[in-house]
Amino acid sequence: MSGETEATSWQEDAARDLVRNAGDRLALFTRGEGSHLWDGEGKRYLDFLGGIAVTSLGHAHPVFVEAVSRQAATLAHVSNFFATPPQLALASQLKRLAGTGESGRVYFGNSGAEANEAAFKLARLHGGPERPRILALRNAFHGRTMGTLALTGKDYMQAPFLPMIPGVEFIESTVEALDQALDERVAALFVEPIKGEAGVVELPEGYLVAARELTARHGALLILDEIQTGAGRTGAWFAFQRDGITPDAITVAKGIGGGFPIGALITFGAASELFSPGTHGSTFGGNALATAVASAVLGEIERAGLLDNAAARGEQLRTAIGAIGSPLVTGCRGRGLLIGIALAHPVAGAVVAAAQQNGLIVNAANDSTIRIAPALTIGDAEIDEFITLFTQTLHTVIADTPASTTPTEVPA
Ligand SMILES: *Cc1c(COP(=O)(O)O)cnc(C)c1O
Fold it and tell me: Shortest CA distance to 287 belongs to which of 74, 64, 86, 66?
């Protein structure tokens, strides 16, 4: 069978040539359009993972294609010795969308980790020797580089790479724990407004408002990691905006480039004056090509009203998932189009595999949570298709699940 030969060959290539930092690649995708992907054998999939909350406009959106092509044919890169019109346009756009006012500033990197590395340095610049402590939340995720790993409160991720950069302490996601941990030696608190990698876990109601008040009282920065929650994913430009607070800084990446690698640190007020010439930099960060594409993607999210669409389609999806009435689904977490589907048993891996067989791409955020983060452009057709494929998938998994399996706890 020629299909078999083809499949074996890419898997062999991947196993031989790619660093083994991740599990086996699940498929070989060769093309995408809207919310659909095609593999090397022409099989079509509904993509409800969106490259992990990245492809906000779906695949090969005309606005994305036009922006990449036009800017590639105009000017791609000149280094940060120089400015370019797309870079300045995106900086001002991000300030407006984040609501920084005049005093805000933007630093550009190429990924979420780079945005958080810049935020880590911002915290150190603010703290100096007098404030060596940095607080972060247990089970939040901030990246895989040494700096961002030091901020990531997951022992199993840090263990092979000890010792970590010193100064970071992990606390539970409660106002009491924060109140106890804060003193005048804390430089900053890092918060992931909805813990995506942990399983789309929300903070306690009112946490951000209390965190803003408490950090301000102790002179510590409040830094929000909006890398997964930003760019309209939760139905607001940034998740913190629902709480009406003003942070000192936020980091963004994933969805702002719609598939083009870009990340940014956005600072508010006095925190905007902490970096001085020579304290940080990046060769590629904020080049004309990346910023032109991100600008076009954010412009299209705004023009097409995709914030409202994310909020409305999120509600529609939650209702429809509940209406499946599957004993395997215990509920949904998250906001807008960042949804964690809670399972009654730790069979998320089996659900992902069965979904892929059925032509549906979803992700296991942990043993008992399915994460979906589809394009912000989805409509009735994509939701109907998802419900059909997901219902079919749940039936398959239930038929194969031993009755004795017990649910795993989702970390707070
Ligand atoms: C994905 C993610 C990161 C890391 O971003 P990369 O682009 O993979 O470096 C950091 N924080 C959060 C909340 C994320 O979801």
Answer: 86
